Amino acid sequence: MTEDNIHSVASYINSNYDKLIEREIPIPYNQSIEELAHILLTKYELPKYIEKELIQDLTQFIEAKEKEFYDTYVEEEVSRAKNDPDYLEDLTKQWEKLFKEETAEYAEKKCASDEELFASAYHKLVHSPALETILSVEHLYAKAVRRRTDQKDAFIQDLSEKQTEEMNKAVDRLEYGMTESEINELVAKHYEDHSLLKVRYASELDTLKEAQRREYRDWVMKMLEYNQENSFPPSPSSPLLTPTSPLLSGPDESTFHENVQNREKEPILEESFTIHLGSQLKQMYNVRILTGNVEDLCIIPVNESSELTPQLLQTALALYSNDLSGLVLMTDNKIGSRVTKDFQENCLKSTEFHFSHIDAQLEKISNIARDHFGESASNGSRSPGSDLLQCGDFYLTKHSNLAQVHVIFHLVSDDTLRGSDINSRHPVILGLRNVLKTACSNDITSLTIPLLLQYDITEEMTTMWCERRAELVFKCMKGFMIEMASWGGSDLKNLQFMLPIGISSQVFHSLADMLPRIFKISNPKILK
Amino acid sequence: MKISLFKSPELQFSATTFFAKQHKGETCGSNGLPLTPNSIIIFGKAQMLKTLKHPYLCEYLDIIRGKHERTIVVSQFCGKPASEFIGKNQLSISEVKKIAFQLFTALNELHKKRIVHRNLSCENILIQSNGDIKLFNYGSYYMTNNGQLVTFPIMKLAYSAPEVYLSPSKADIASSKVDVWSVGIILIEFIFNKQLWSNLKLGQQIRKILSFYQCGTSIFEKIAREHNCFDIYHNLPQDIKEIVEQCLQINPKNRPSCEEFLQNEMFVEYKNVKCKNPSRVCKPYQIFTLKELYQWWQLTGGDVFLELKKQGLIRSSPPVLSLPCLIMLDGTILGQGRNPATLYDFRIVHMGLDTLYQRFGHIHLNSCYPLLHFKSDIIDMFDPAPYDIKNLPLVIKEKDPEYQFHRIILFRRLLHGYPFTKDMIRKEAKKDIPPLLRGEIWAALLDIKADYKKAYAVIDKETVTTTDRQIEVDIPRCHQYNELLSSTEGHIKLRRILKAWVQKNTQYVYWQGLDSLTAPFLYLNFNDEAKAYHCLSAFVPKYVHKFFLRDNSAVIREYLAKFSQLIAFHDPELANHLHNINFYPELFAIPWFLTVFSHVFPLYKILHVWDNLLLGDSSFPLHVGLSVLTQLRTKLLTAGFNDCILLFSDLPEVDIEKSINYSIDTFKKTPKSITAREHQNEEFTIQSEHDISGVTLDDLNKERSPRISARDTTDLLRTAPESILVIDIRNPVQFSRCCVRGSINIPFSSVSFGESNIENIGQHAQMLKNSQERIVIIVGSTDTDLELFPKFLLNCGISKVCVLHGGFNILTSVTPTVLVSQKFET
């Protein structure tokens, strides 16, 4: 069936009947011998009554040839095995490896890792009445981090102000005997003080987070034990209800800096569709087009008076489920690039209780990339030892402390995306296909994509430009989704196309109108 | 009381599961299309295993594909693994001989079918209560294409022949001799009552087996010495010793084949004990089989997947923990470790049947033996009340275990009696068709003859022809969402059937669409290509006669013209709208009728449409087409030409059951001659002077309302005069001289056709407006215009208008007459 199957060809010759019958027969022969006989009967215009004879003759011929074929095939191997003990030893090693790598019977028995244990504990708890407790504890922890961060910012600002004042004075005194070198010294000292303070607070913050993380994880495990022993959820008076450590409250009762970032709330434009794909068998998807930015999906608002937002519930419930939610974040070829600095800072706003912190994750990816490029140095386009990526590559980070997403696809793009003449073979589009494929094979069933593949609105982005770009992305995504149905993974359920906030409502509506023209909208069921 | 019937020890099954190899990166097949996922190739290949039935083999029941290339195999499992006996009960030599005989018999059966077990061990030999064996899990190597479609090795460490270890690369050939070696090892274990090399580690075991290549003496003897069993070895009867020695020949060339072993004199005594088959004429009859039990079990809520999960064989570690880190543009995945849950785990999970027993507990024994031919009140009294869910929707009926139980019991009997029970099958099929037996029932409805296999075998399906290229292009696009049809095996089978059809029907050509038409038959008869072919061959002349002519335009255009007329007949408003926006059936309905909707709907819907089609005639597709339009009616009525084109370019979801019921309804209400065509197959129709003939395509295209035959008119006049309204448009003089009984006269000349207002026709307008359900038959003569009047009625929105073919004069020859003379009436 496949070409790499081992086979040979035998020539069948039969001269028993007036004519000479010749036929090349592949060995081993996997088809029906009866059919072969009839083909020969027709071809050589032989009388029908010899059918049985011919079948028998063919059968014998094929059997003999097959036996011969197997025998010679094995013969070679066997004689080698008899004479070469090293070869046998080599084989043993290969088999051992294969069995250990592929079968559960011989593989190293690994107990469930800490990660897995914690995951299952957490998953069980969030699917119990304890859900709310857990989320509110998380929220309290986040508040503590927030307080500390604010404090740090305040101190640093204080210092900066003081230093500026000092500097101003020094510069004023320049004419009165202050030398330039002294000024330089001062600058150096200021810089040192400043970074020292920063580092100190940063490490303090890290310590706090680490402590929080440990405490939280212990507490979750205890909660689980408690839940298993008592079939009812802990009563509010239970000591287990909340950890009471100082980690929750922070250093002092300093209140939040109400740096109210009340962004000019632009009205969020959005429209939802239920579409179906496939020519005969129709598959349903939810598609949404909306304006917004990455922050909206990531930031959990934390301040003194903040309450839990309902989306968090969903995010927590799905974290260890088979319905993950992902976001495509455009970045440049440097892993952990400054382009996504805002995003990285968002991740650090609260403690990551489940996975490594973003820096550690990026560091790991960077190492993997370096190793890989080092290995495949022959690959001309990539310089060995560097961890620079190419347009269309992407890396994944996972998060438990973002508002609506678990997985971020950091998709590498470049300046060509600003142009208007990209087509479906552009690396970023192909990267999107890989994103979809990865989502499909890792149970990521909700995905958000920047429709224009850009976050900022620039002058080049005319209505025409937007429409062309949107059309390209819509059509390509449609193609990929149809393709995806045959990949045998999990189906995408929700797909969101995000547009930059500042986009005019006219452009938005023209793009939203385009969607049902490209995707087929499902027939609404009408109750009669 | 009859639950014991279900509780037979043989009626048990279990499941195993594994992962198929994932395709690496972005690879394409030689045809430029994406590669078929390995799990689908396995799915297709494994279907053949379901046909194997042998007393010493467990029956394969089902193959299920899960997400991420998981494959689950469901198979019969009864008795206890032989490994549980070893070390406990020492078997007598004669018992060992019997097992040897049965092993060789079972393996020979497999080898003849070109299946190599390769995984043979004491664990998958199941010992029945009577001491017989059944081999389990013998198809893994076969279904994975000699192990090439999976990453793990298909073999059993201590039992595998040494040459298996010589080629760790996957591309290995399937030699049946490896199984013979395994038999040797198994026999030794039985004789010594000991598991061989049980305390050796993995590497040591492999080394041990490979060391046999260095062994100059008898391998059997060597093993005996190593296991301190030399005494047993020494005292062993020569014949069995000989067998084992031969099995353990280091060179496969010197190892006899199973067939040769069976010639051994030692086995003569077992050979004559054959399973008794009382009848040589027909196969022994079972009231139901394990396959059916398995289906009922599924319907009662049995779920293999769930059962595997419950018993820990499907472990799901959260996907968020095993995400990859980095994916390159070329698809290289970095930083994703092997998920331990995807390793091969050979454990077997047994399926509990308790819910089935509970659900079927109350079923009366009589229900298993339905009386087909004779039934009396007295017998009826003792029968339990019939299980009645007739009026529920089809989907519910198909999911109801008890209903399906009764249907399958009944249909199995009827099919067993085919062809003598043909009429009864047809009658029962009108109610509904149980999905499990659909393939066979369809074959019966299409009159497939008993010698169909031979007839198919003699057709040449290999020789290259000119249509091959087109077939090659179409197959990978035909219902590929379906696992069977997208599998490699499915592609091969579909190609063979199509080639056979083209070869056999030289008067026709291969038109695109024939592939879709074949798909349902292949889907239903995947393991019986010949039957699928014959179903297609019987289907084409009956339902799409002449559609596959090289120049089929006349046939198709006639069919479409009839479709337009049928729309006008039942739904004048819609017909008028489509007519006004110039949206003709040519623009959307050709694939509908050319493929009888098999290119339009997904398979599960086609099956239900065709269930009914096979009971109807070649006009049924027209009614289905009408019903589809009816479902889209509100949308269509407000749509312009462009919207309509868009709407049909990707047909919206259609509620199929509603559509079928509607089509059956219109099919029944429409006189046959309304849809009669010049090009329909004469074989299935009787022509007389009172039927319609000789209508040219041009005429047909001009006439917007259909014609009705004199035969149908007189039939209606005689049997249901209240359901028709005959309008005579000749002049009053002719009318008063002689007219159809009960007809009304609206002289053609008295009507002004200027505007579409029904009032223009005068006193009878009210009657026509209220005619709704009545068929309006227009009777004219050669000197009246038979186009304008019906067109006028159509424009006025009067439904069910048709014109008598042949005019008034045709009726004069009808006896007994349906005509009256006014003179005599008054």
- Give the distance, in angstroms, between the N- and C-terminal Cα atoms of chain B: 75 Å
Q: What's the number of extended β-strand segments of chain B?
A: 16
- What structural category arises from helix and sheet content of chain B? alpha/beta
Provide the structure class of chain A: alpha/beta
The total tally of domains of chain A equals 3
Say what oligomer this is: heterodimer
What are the SSEs and their pairings?
The complex is a heterodimer of chains A (528) and B (826).
Chain A: E1 8-14, E2 21-27, H1 33-43, H2 51-83, H3 85-102, H4 114-126, H5 131-172, H6 180-229, E3 270-277, E4 283-291, H7 294-298, H8 310-318, E5 324-331, H9 341-347, H10 358-375, E6 394-398, E7 407-412, H11 427-441, E8 444-450, H12 463-484, E9 494-499, H13 505-518, E10 520-521
Parallel strand pairs in A: 4-9, 5-7, 5-8, 8-9
Antiparallel strand pairs in A: 1-2, 3-4, 3-10, 6-7
Helix pairs in contact in A: 1-2, 4-6, 5-6, 11-12, 12-13
Chain B: H1 3-6, E1 13-19, H2 38-46, E2 60-65, E3 70-76, E4 80-81, H3 93-112, E5 125-127, E6 133-135, H4 140-143, H5 177-192, H6 202-211, H7 219-226, H8 230-235, H9 238-247, H10 258-262, H11 268-271, H12 290-299, H13 304-310, E7 326-327, E8 333-334, E9 349-350, H14 354-360, H15 377-382, H16 394-399, H17 401-416, H18 422-431, H19 438-445, H20 452-457, H21 468-474, H22 483-486, H23 488-504, H24 514-524, H25 529-543, H26 553-570, H27 572-580, H28 590-594, H29 603-613, H30 620-631, H31 633-638, H32 641-649, H33 656-669, H34 697-702, E10 707-708, H35 710-719, E11 724-728, H36 732-737, E12 739-740, E13 744-745, H37 765-769, E14 775-779, H38 788-795, E15 801-804, H39 809-812, E16 819-820, H40 822-825
